[in-house]
Structure formats: structure tokens, C-alpha cells
Design the sequence.
């Protein structure tokens, strides 16, 4: 009888959770658009950066779960840690992705290789929420292939309990005072950027000698590094295993929630600015579901949940203008004009130059 009673109690609890969950989709979300269930039972495959969507952790909204509940479409959600990894997977096939969320220069490359489908923005009732400054950008001048998702810049994170006074320069990654305490990017474009900024080079240089000099500088700094990292930076910086690292501003804000000793600056030489955007691949299996998903991401409640979880600057005016938004007016994400660092976008580079610097990068890593 005790076992039966316990089972009955558990069943009631589970039943109540199921029914309370059924009401959550409508009770908690204030949606601008209407979402039909015509595609119920189909699957949408989304390929995004790691830690790049509100996923239900820390009591926050689970965006994919809410989309599934609302539409009946199953979201097959996969992640990557760099644009280059994403490109390789998409190019080589194996998985038929519907939606990808790359950065600007990689979007330009994908367009040059005719891998993206046009996005019918007339079917996106929330498209009007995109800030005009993020439309008609260099990689999609006619707003045909992309919908902005996040905006960011790269800076340097350091542990103020270990490093008391620091020069606001990329040179600190080479400073012997921080030997075995420093990290650098484990992807060629960002790693080369740290050296190119010191050397005063164009981040999109077509001059091989510029890339040679940047590679030599990276080699000189390699003995100073503890490791090359991507998402591993979270654990290393949050726990104090490392004390200084270049990374994306939005991720710094996430790390600082865990370790308040972490501080941040934009180096005086300048830095990279980027726009990550939602794209639909030309070989997408579920184009209509992809449009529905993109429109859902633009919903004010969804865009705000993502912006607060990810910590990047939002291109969505419903987020930017919301005084209840956690990062409203944050100077790291939304610096005033007088505090804006010097910035450069990455552009897609000629195949010969790209192959050249990728080979140099292998040499840097193996040296």
C-alpha cells in the first residue's frame, strides 16, 4: 500500500507538471505573430554556436522547447565552436542542416559559393524589429539572405584578483609577466587578429607578407600561452585556472556572473566587430519551418530571453529599447559613441590568401 500510495503521489505530481507546462506556452509568452501547426511532426535542424540560445538553464526560457510546443515542429539542435568548423561540416555534408547562424565573413563566403537560400522577409512579420543600422550590411546589401541575430566585439578578459594593473593593449598576451596565465583563440581568424592589431595591419589584407609577419608574432607569443581555446575559456577563466584571455564581450558578461573578479577592456589598437546572422541553407529540407523559426526568434520575449542568456548586443529594437532588459544601456555591449573602440569587420578573403593563412596557422600550432 505504501508503494502504491507513493506511486499515486508521484503520478499526481507529474500530471500537474504536464498540465502546468501545457499552459506555459501561452500564459508566459506575449507573441506578436500567429503560429500555425501545419508542419506539426516535421523536423527542423538548426546549427548554432555553443552557449548561443536560451536553453532553459538557470530558470530561463527554453526557446527551442517553446517553439516545439507552439508549432509541433521538432527542433534538432546542433552546435559548433567556430565558423570554420561550421563551414567544414556544412560543406562536407553528412547532416542536412536547415538553419545556420554564422558570422559576417563566413556568410560572405557561403554566398560566394552559392550555398544559401534567399529568405522571404515578407513572411517574417517581426522583421520590422531589426534595427536599421544592421540592415543593408556589406555581406548582404539587399537583406536577401540573412536576419541579424547578435552583434559583438572582441576584447580582453582578465582576473583582477591576480592582475592589478594592466595595459589596455593586445600586447599583454605576449607579456612575460603573464607567462602560463594567458590564453589565445583556437581559430585562425581571431588569433591572427590579435597579432594584426599590434602590427597595425588590415584584418583583410591581401598581402601575404602581412600574414607572414603576423604568424611570426604569434609564434613569438606561443611560449607565453597556457593554451589555445574556444569554449574552454569559460572553465579556465571562471575558475581562475587562467588569468587573461581574448574573447567575445558577451561571453565576458556571462563569465563575470560566475566570477566577479573578471574585468574587461577593448584594446587601444582596435578590435574586430561582428554580426552573427540567421541563414537558411540552399539544400534546407524544411524551408517553411525555418521561416517560422526565424520569426519566432525575432519575437520580443524570445529575443530578450536570448539577449539576457547570451549576453551579446541585440540587433532587435524591442530588446534595445526595453528598460527592463537586464543589459539595458550596458556600456560594454552598447558603448556610447565617444567610447566606441576602433573596429574592423572580417571580410571573406580570396581563396589563395585564405589557404595561405590557414597553412600558416597550422605551422603556428605545430611550431
Sequence:
Amino acid at each position: 500500500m505504501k508503494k502504491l500510495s507513493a506511486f499515486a503521489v508521484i503520478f499526481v505530481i507529474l500530471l500537474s507538471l504536464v498540465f502546468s507546462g501545457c499552459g506555459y506556452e501561452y500564459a508566459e509568452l506575449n507573441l506578436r505573430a500567429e503560429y500555425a501547426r501545419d508542419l506539426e511532426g516535421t523536423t527542423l535542424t538548426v546549427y548554432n554556436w555553443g552557449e548561443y540560445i536560451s536553453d532553459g538553464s538557470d530558470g530561463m526560457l527554453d526557446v527551442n522547447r517553446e517553439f516545439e510546443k507552439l508549432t509541433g515542429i521538432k527542433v534538432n539542435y546542433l552546435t559548433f565552436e567556430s565558423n570554420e568548423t561550421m563551414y567544414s561540416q556544412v560543406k562536407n555534408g553528412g547532416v542536412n542542416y536547415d538553419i545556420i547562424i554564422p558570422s559576417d565573413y563566413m556568410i560572405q563566403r557561403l554566398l560566394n559559393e552559392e550555398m544559401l537560400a534567399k529568405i522571404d522577409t515578407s513572411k517574417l512579420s517581426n522583421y520590422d524589429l531589426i534595427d536599421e543600422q544592421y540592415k543593408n550590411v556589406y555581406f548582404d546589401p539587399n537583406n536577401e539572405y540573412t536576419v541579424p541575430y547578435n552583434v559583438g566585439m572582441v576584447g580582453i578578459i582578465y582576473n583582477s584578483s591576480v592582475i592589478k594593473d594592466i595595459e589596455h593593449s593586445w600586447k599583454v598576451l605576449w607579456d612575460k609577466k603573464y607567462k602560463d596565465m594567458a590564453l589565445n583563440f583556437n581559430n585562425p581568424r581571431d588569433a591572427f587578429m590579435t597579432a594584426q592589431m599590434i602590427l597595425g595591419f588590415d584584418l583583410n589584407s591581401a598581402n601575404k607578407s602581412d600574414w607572414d609577419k603576423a604568424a611570426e608574432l604569434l609564434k613569438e607569443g606561443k611560449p607565453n600561452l597556457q593554451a589555445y581555446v574556444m569554449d574552454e575559456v569559460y572553465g579556465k577563466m571562471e575558475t581562475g585556472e587562467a588569468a587573461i584571455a581574448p574573447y567575445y564581450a558577451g561571453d565576458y558578461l556571462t563569465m563575470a556572473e560566475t566570477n566577479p573578479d573578471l574585468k574587461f577592456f577593448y584594446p587601444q589598437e582596435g578590435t574586430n566587430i561582428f554580426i552573427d546572422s540567421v541563414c537558411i541553407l540552399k539544400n534546407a529540407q524544411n524551408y517553411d519551418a525555418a521561416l517560422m523559426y526565424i520569426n519566432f526568434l525575432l519575437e520580443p520575449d524570445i529575443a530578450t530571453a536570448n539577449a539576457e542568456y547570451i549576453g551579446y548586443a541585440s540587433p532587435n529594437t524591442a530588446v534595445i529599447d526595453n528598460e527592463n532588459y537586464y543589459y539595458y544601456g550596458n556600456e560594454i555591449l552598447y558603448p556610447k559613441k565617444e567610447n566606441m573602440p576602433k573596429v574592423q569587420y572580417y571580410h571573406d578573403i580570396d581563396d589563395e590568401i585564405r589557404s595561405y593563412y590557414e597553412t600558416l596557422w597550422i605551422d603556428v600550432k605545430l611550431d
The chain has twelve helices and eleven strands. The radius of gyration is 22 Å.
